[in-house]
Amino acid sequence: MFILKTSNSISQIARLRSPKFRQTGSNCTLSFWYYNYGESVGAAELQLLVDGVKRPTVLWRTYYGEGSQWLKAVIQLGRLPHAFQFSLDKISLGIYEGVSAIDDIRFENCALPPPASSCEGPNHFWCRDTKACIDNLLICDLLDDCGDGSDEDSCDPDLQCNFENGLCNWEQDVQDDFDWIRIQGPTPTVNTGPLKDHTTGTARGHYLYLESSEPRQFRDKAVLLSPLFNPSENGTCAFRFHYHMFGKQVYRLSVFQRSVSNTKGWLLWYKFGNQENRWLRQTLFIRSSKPFQILVEGTVGDGFTGDIGLDDVSFLGCTLYNGNLPTISTTTLRTSVPATLPMNNCTEKEFVCRASGHCIQMIQKCDFRPDCSDKSDESACVMEVCDFEDKNLCGWHQPALEQMSGTYSVHITKTFMWQLGRGANLYPEQGHCPSTDHTTGTEEGWYLFADSSNGEFGNTADIATPVISLTGPRCKIIFWNHMNGSTIGSLEVLYKSSNKTSKLWTQSGSQGPQWNRAEVFLGVRSDFQIIFRAKRGVSYMGDVAVDDITFEDCSPLLISDKPCTSEEFMCANKYCIPKNNLCDFVNDCEDNSDESPRI
């Protein structure tokens, strides 16, 4: 189907209407291929028109010509319980010169679950009227998965919130940098954030979002606090939520669990970066021997296209706690790990948790997951995120310096080495160092740099992690580098295991006077170190600097004591992974069963 110009009016609209549809299931998507080419081809948008709702919902837009090519659009529709149709509008203001076309319209997974003759087992729910058999985790999640509403009957309103009438019993944290915003329809900035909520799938519904435009700055945080819950030691308490992370500069969404009111608590889950223009569902099982609270933290990225959305938060198998969480004194928070080991029965091949004497496998030490209650198994390891603020090296160390001096406190003159720096402390000969760090964007912020005013041409400086025991299948390193100057050398990221060292990433020469993002995939590896190696150029005219080093998604997989959900795939080794990770050329299962041709 293509557009043929038939008039010369100033404003022209070509409108294509779909037939009417009665309803869709919760996993429904619409896809089509479009062609929009020409200097004055104009904009186009797809609208959702729902019976009984006056305001149309924009599902998709293109603002200008996108080259002489067919492009695919995939739109998440989700559960639409009322009759609806689509309107594809092509808008031309003044002269229309170009070609607009659409082809291969396709609906997928749009039917409701089929009726079943039986529905047995504790992990399933039999819908009252439609007789569909659905996963028990879909009960009371603010979405009519059955098609008759029976999975949302008799639900406790205090355990769920769709933000249609405010924050329910959730609260904004007063200790963060700014607040989550409740909104309808699209966020104010184009090409980031949702166009609609998750509950209704229309612009009429409400959701929360994190605004990343000014005056927000990189790494500003907004925290949402749940109500308090009673202990859940058997892991039957489940927290479900839907999140939206769309935009080139989306940074991070994290979920924490705490049992003390003046701490952030334990990290349960996080997600980095752009996840495309869609709502995604996440389920977390909560274990706690004490009353607890959930914190949802959004972090601003390095630009205005970094909006994050949150909707349809709910708890299943949890009960509210009618009390207050205790506080802990700041002196207690600073208590160091005991110098002597507690009484224990650990073998030489096991690690002793410093506070409890509990034994864990040595491979669980330094694997980006705290297995000891006091986190002592991760205390002498590289930190997951390092911004070098407060002059903290986060576990990174320079082996060559330790051999020469035994301590960082001894100043080694005329040696090409890594050191902490900031714009406010620069000397005239360090004019090619960054004038601001990447974390704060100010002269006061700290970064790591290799000072080329020392050393000679070809000298190298290494800074390394402690030994990392094990990483997961999607592990990668994200960091920011600054390489500016006429005689800049090179920067390498190396992988060292036993006595073998291999190169993972390298960059040479001047890259301009700005911070540049780099990403290095690691995947599943064991007993290794990561090394950043700077190589000096022919003169001092150029320094290599790094900042904001992050190990993302690096904790190894865990075998859950819960069966895999309907949204997950069970690997041959019993791990559960999201189904959308199947056949993606990544060994997510660690045994490659998710990439088997037999799937």
TrEMBL record:
The keyword Disulfide bond applies. GO terms for cellular component: membrane. Residues 1-112, 159-320, 384-556 form the MAM domain. Disulfide bonds join C140-C155, C366-C381, C564-C576, C571-C589. Keywords: Disulfide bond, Repeat. It holds the Pfam family MAM. It comes from the Eukaryota. SUPFAM superfamilies: Concanavalin A-like lectins/glucanases (SSF49899), LDL receptor-like module (SSF57424). The keyword Repeat applies. This is MALR1 protein. It comes from Sylvia borin (Garden warbler). The gene is Malrd1_0.
